[in-house]
Amino acid sequence: GATIGILGGGQLGRMLSVAASRLGYKTCVFEPAGDCPASHVANFHLQAGYDDVGALARFADAVDVVTYEFENIPTSALDALEARRPIRPGRRALAVSQDRLTEKAFLTDLGLTCAPFRDIPDLAALQAALADLGTPAILKTRRLGYDGKGQVRIDSADQAGAAFDAMAGADAILEGFVDFQREVSVIAARGLSGEVVCYDPGENVHRDGILRTTTVPATLTASQRMDAALLAGRILNALDYVGVMGVELFVTPGGLVVNEVAPRVHNSGHWTQAGCAVDQFEQHIRAVAGLPLGDGQRQVDVVMENLIGDDMDRLPDLLAAPATQVHLYGKAEVRAGRKMGHVNRFTAA
Ligand code: ATP
Ligand code: MG
Ligand code: MG
């Protein structure tokens, strides 16, 4: 049987491995850390760094196709892999999503709406951008941010210096603050032959910059729901994308504003494990393996709740709760802000 190579050994890689295994594939995970969530379930774990070209070549030779669970893969590693095996989703999706400036330029060129933004190479640029966009605004590192890390909210122009220093020299952009009614995300998939499947949008609530819950159905009008699916399809087609993508949206009275895209399975898509015949992990494996996409229709209402840090104290209650699916990532150590697992609660039949 075929072997699917997965870059990254976190919980997303773990759940991708389980889905691949259910479809009869083997998986090989490439991950620098020794004991990681995906290594517990994958058939093979190649433990090496992304700068180890020899290890990357051995990994590529051992698999039929390469996919990934995170977008910050160094370009040099991608070059080494792509010379040997297909990478799905492709390089363009990674280039676009690794850098917030490239991402916003791409989305804007597609005719989609983003928060107003400015490139911030230096403090003078930040002061000019604040005068232009006003406050509140959010200064974000262009690269490597997640869970709200690498972001500073600026409430008045006199905070510019401190905010700029907080970026610690990293390239940054300033975003105007979007006064949204709610946050939703669309998980969408595109197959090797170009077909697109879109999951029902989920409504997301964050706490301390980290996703707390996703609820389906989201509070949206029929036309907002349609817009969300159409814009996701437009992004996937423009990138000639293969795999699952998460598209984060702000809902405003003026329409949907795209916050960011993730070229991979997404935390806000975990509800599909309880809500659909084919969940986002199986859908991603189907796409990268060249199988037809499956039925992503939502069958029930679901609330997904992340188990972060001390939330694990509630585990006995959650295990005993009715209509509740518990997923744990096998992380030995509980730490504040660390995603340890999630639960999917069915809220209607
Ligand atoms: P993720 O873990 O989703 O990758 P991230 O670190 O990339 O998160 P963002 O998605 O850019 O961060 O922002 C995190 C949250 O901060 C958003 O979900 C939203 O609640 C808020 N936020 C970000 N940008 C804006 C904005 N321009 N206007 C209003 N709120 C914003
Ligand atoms: Mg992000
Ligand atoms: Mg985000």
TrEMBL record:
SUPFAM superfamilies according to UniProt: Glutathione synthetase ATP-binding domain-like, PreATP-grasp domain, Rudiment single hybrid motif
One MF annotation (Gene Ontology) recorded for this entry: metal ion binding
Origin: domain of life: Bacteria
Protein name, entry field: N5-carboxyaminoimidazole ribonucleotide synthase
TM spans (from-to): none
The organism of origin for this protein: Jannaschia pohangensis
Role noted for this protein: Catalyzes the ATP-dependent conversion of 5-aminoimidazole ribonucleotide (AIR) and HCO(3)(-) to N5-carboxyaminoimidazole ribonucleotide (N5-CAIR). Catalyzes the ATP-dependent conversion of 5-aminoimidazole ribonucleotide (AIR) and HCO(3)- to N5-carboxyaminoimidazole ribonucleotide (N5-CAIR).
Catalytic activity line of the entry: 5-amino-1-(5-phospho-beta-D-ribosyl)imidazole + hydrogencarbonate + ATP = 5-carboxyamino-1-(5-phospho-D-ribosyl)imidazole + ADP + phosphate + 2 H(+)
Gene that encodes it: purK
Biological processes per GO annotation: 'de novo' IMP biosynthetic process
